[in-house]
Specification:
The complex is a heterodimer of chains A (about 425) and B (about 300).
Chain A lengths: L11 E9 L5 H11 L5 H14 L14 H6 L6 E6 L3 E9 L5 H8 L4 E7 L6 H12 L4 E7 L8 H14 L7 E6 L23 H7 L12 E8 L7 E5 L4 E2 L4 E5 L4 E9 L2 E3 L2 E2 L3 E6 L10 E3 L6 E12 L10 E6 L2 E14 L6 E2 L9 E14 L10 E5 L6 E7 L1
Parallel strand pairs in A: 1-3, 1-4, 4-5, 5-6
Antiparallel strand pairs in A: 2-3, 7-8, 7-15, 8-14, 9-13, 10-11, 10-15, 11-12, 11-14, 16-20, 16-22, 17-18, 17-21, 18-19, 18-20, 21-22
Chain B lengths: L6 H7 L1 H21 L3 E4 L4 H14 L8 E4 L6 H14 L3 E4 L2 H5 L4 H4 L1 H20 L3 E3 L16 E4 L27 E4 L7 H11 L10 E8 L2 E4 L13 E7 L12 E2 L5 H10 L17 H7 L4
Parallel strand pairs in B: 1-2, 1-4, 2-3, 4-6
Antiparallel strand pairs in B: 5-6, 7-8, 7-9, 9-10
Helix pairs in contact in B: 2-3, 3-8, 8-9
Classes of the chains: A alpha+beta (about 425), B alpha/beta (about 300).
């Protein structure tokens, strides 16, 4: 992959999540990004104009560009995560647009799980509200490396610098203990477009990038774990007796033919003979690439097992200590049993203890008997077979798991290994 | 016009993110093959299906695709689509199943008389649900993308469907990281959308990069059409009755997306090579479903169809 500007350079893809309540102007902000980057098609605009006519409103409401379901349009709210796409000559963007109310924390967690960056919105008139703090905390908890605090509706406070500075100081103080250190503040007005795509003439005191400039230029290449080789096996590929390969995605690190690898759980060591793809053999595969690995010796390896390098072995354990976001109506309680899905493994688990619950407003840890819908806490789980895990902060894909309820089949919890 | 757009250069610049999208789709397909008992890939013969098939070839290489592909045929597809379907599936060696709602076809179901909702309901949704039940498929891949339509923007990659194939948009399973939940009870199923995060342009770029064959009616040629409010309806004296004031014209035109003949309009175009098509789409200011009659009925018609089991 080549980098840098000009001919031959490759577009990077940036996934970001936006969180904010209806009144923060989140939908307007996204509508503005799509509209100003010319992603909204004429016929979609016509359809929106018809809707506006029917509802008796005037002109096109940018926020309607992002509203999906009939129920949402009727109620003027966002229920679920919606995905949006746009690109500029510099980058391709995937937005996970999530509703901001506290009862939708689980959706925010869902959107944040795959994001490189989070845009948290605040209303300049209201200062740093508890919900902005909550959005920031969730972004940080989910290991998003970059947070942008967009101070919106600057037009309604006469573009006053002191309003912006106060919010910056308040949020900065709250975020001091965040795992995310890269926090950027941008004063904007989604409605008028100030500092979204075009630079605001109203705020000459702000010399930083516009929101789009920031999204286009924030370095994301080093956000992924390029060190520890982890290859969870998805499938054994066996077209005939003379061929056996292991199909999967490189979850982290890099691998090359000749490298010594260790198979888990057997701990047998062998070497990589070749890295195969439909488009030919590779000299090297790195994080995010899907390949078939052919090994020099026959080892016992099947779906759910993992290839690693012998000097970088993950934690092999049946005791999982994790931060957990609860996503189901029925609460989590100590003693209950669930299924854990981790990398390509599915294994039974029991909740040993609920160690604490996080007060999402103060970030304080408090004792709790149960974890309810949208609550976040820390648990200890006992799993039936050993899992090969890393701390989530070090490795997002081998540190993450979901809990599934065996009876309802629902995904009920999102876990991050401590 | 088209020569001002450096198509090849733009595609080269997009190669890296296409690789990322490709890897994500391959990962999803392998997960499905590993965790479901009897998956099937829905194949509509269009460009998205063609990309999906290529990704399936890659996902299981050097082994063959471990599931069949199924075309839910309404009987109203363009003749070129049937020819292409049979030839291409044979060429790449994938097992093709064709299913149709014979009862509705026998009754002479058509959109002109019964309306598009009823026609789609019988020939597409009905036929699909019957076919899934008949074969006992528990997972069905579809080539839908989230950028196509606003209700699709909210759909999961693994879209849970009850025993009636219905989608409940307000009660979707959370989907985090790359951990997909494949648990279902007997009779329930999952629709899987491996192209969820691809855009229309991504699909075209990929077709160029990978040299994926497509049905020839994507290319412009002179066609006999009737202009109905900007939608060029292909003229066929057996199916199309001219309204007062309408006339048949010969127009250089092509199809931007492929559906059923009565409900798919052509667009004015002189795009005769794959580069021309891509250049045209880069410049296009109308979304690709605008030439589909079925989406126009109301702001939420796709959402309604999906609730009823449409893919």
């Amino acid at each position: 992959m080549q980098n840098g500007e000009g001919v031959g350079s490759s577009l990077e893809m940036l996934r970001f999540t936006t969180a904010g309540s209806v009144d923060d102007g989140k939908s307007t902000l996204i509508g503005r990004l799509l509209f100003d980057s010319k992603t909204v098609f004429e016929d979609q605009l016509e359809s929106l104009a018809k809707t506006a006519l029917r509802k008796g409103t005037h002109g096109i409401d940018l926020s309607l560009i992002t509203d999906g379901l009939a129920a949402e349009r009727e109620q003027g709210i966002t229920i679920d995560v919606a995905y949006r796409y746009f690109s500029t000559p510099k980058r391709k963007f995937i937005i996970a647009d999530t509703p901001g109310h506290e009862q939708y924390t689980r959706n925010m967690v869902t959107g944040a799980s795959t994001a490189n960056l989070a845009v948290v919105l605040t209303d300049a008139r209201k200062g740093v509200l508890p919900q902005s703090k909550r959005h920031g905390f969730i972004a940080s908890l989910l290991g998003i490396p970059h947070i942008v605090l967009a101070v919106n509706k600057m037009d309604l406070v006469d573009y006053a610098r002191d309003v912006y500075e106060k919010i910056k100081a308040d949020f900065g103080a709250y975020a001091r203990d965040f795992k995310t250190h890269d926090i950027t503040f941008i004063p904007v007005s989604a409605l008028t477009g100030d500092n979204i795509v075009t630079r605001s003439v109203q705020m000459p005191w702000y010399t930083g990038p516009t929101l789009l400039e920031f999204l286009e230029n924030v370095p994301i290449r080093n956000d992924r774990n390029l060190t520890d080789f982890r290859f969870p096996v998805q499938l054994v590929v066996r077209p005939h007796q003379d061929f056996r390969g292991y199909a999967g995605d490189v979850a982290s690190g890099t691998i090359a033919p000749g490298d010594t690898v260790m198979a888990l759980p057997s701990r047998r060591q062998t070497r990589v003979r070749e890295l195969l793809t439909y488009n030919g053999k590779l000299d090297r595969a790195t994080v995010g690439q899907s390949v078939v690995i052919v090994l020099a010796d026959e080892v016992d390896l099947s779906r759910g097992d993992m290839l690693v390098k012998p000097d970088q072995v993950p934690n092999i354990t049946q005791d999982l200590k994790a931060t957990l976001c609860w996503m189901a109506d029925e609460p989590l309680e100590p003693g209950k049993r669930y299924l854990v899905k981790h990398t390509t493994q599915m294994v039974g688990a029991m909740v040993q203890s609920l160690d604490y619950r996080v007060d999402i407003h103060t970030l304080a840890h408090e004792p709790a008997q149960a974890l309810r819908l949208n609550e976040i806490g820390a648990v200890t789980l006992k799993v039936k077979r050993p899992l090969y895990v890393d701390a989530y902060d070090r490795n997002r894909l081998t540190g993450a798991f979901v809990l599934i309820d065996e009876l309802s089949n629902n995904t009920v919890g999102a876990g991050m290994v401590v | 016009m088209t020569e001002t757009i450096p198509v090849r250069q733009i595609i080269a610049q997009n190669a890296a993110h296409l690789k990322q999208l490709e890897a994500e789709s391959i990962y999803i397909m392998r997960e499905v093959a590993a965790e479901f008992k009897k998956p099937v890939m829905l194949y509509s013969v269009g460009k998205d299906s063609s990309v999906m098939l290529r990704l399936a070839q890659k996902a299981f290489y050097p082994a063959p695709i471990p599931f069949p592909v199924m075309h839910v045929d309404t009987g109203y597809k363009f003749p070129e689509m049937y020819v292409f379907r049979d030839k291409y599936c044979a060429e790449i060696g994938v097992r093709l199943i064709v299913e149709r709602n014979e009862r509705a076809i026998g009754m002479g179901m058509n959109p002109m008389q019964y309306g598009t909702d009823k026609c789609c309901g019988a020939l597409k949704t009905g036929a699909l649900l019957d076919a899934l039940t008949k074969h006992g498929f528990d997972a069905a891949f579809g080539g839908a993308r989230r950028d196509e339509e606003k209700s699709r923007a909210k759909e999961r990659i693994y879209s849970f469907r009850d025993a009636f194939g219905q989608w409940d948009p307000k009660n979707q399973r959370p989907e985090l990281w790359n951990l997909y939940n494949a648990r279902i009870n007997d009779g329930e199923s999952i629709r899987v959308f491996p192209l969820s995060n691809w855009t229309e342009l991504d699909v075209w770029f990929y077709i160029v990069l990978e040299e994926i064959p497509i049905v020839p009616i994507y290319y412009a040629q002179k066609r006999r059409v009737v202009d109905r409010g900007g939608i060029l309806v292909p003229y066929d004296e057996k199916r199309v009755t001219l309204k007062p004031g309408e006339q048949v014209e010969e127009v250089l035109s092509r199809f931007r997306s492929l559906g059923c003949m009565p409900c798919t309009g052509a667009i004015r175009s002189n795009a005769q090579t794959i580069e021309d098509i891509v250049a045209e789409i880069i410049l296009a200011r109308k979304s690709e479903r605008e030439n589909r009659v079925i989406d126009h009925n109301s702001d939420s018609s796709m959402e309604q169809k999906k609730r009823e089991g449409y893919f």
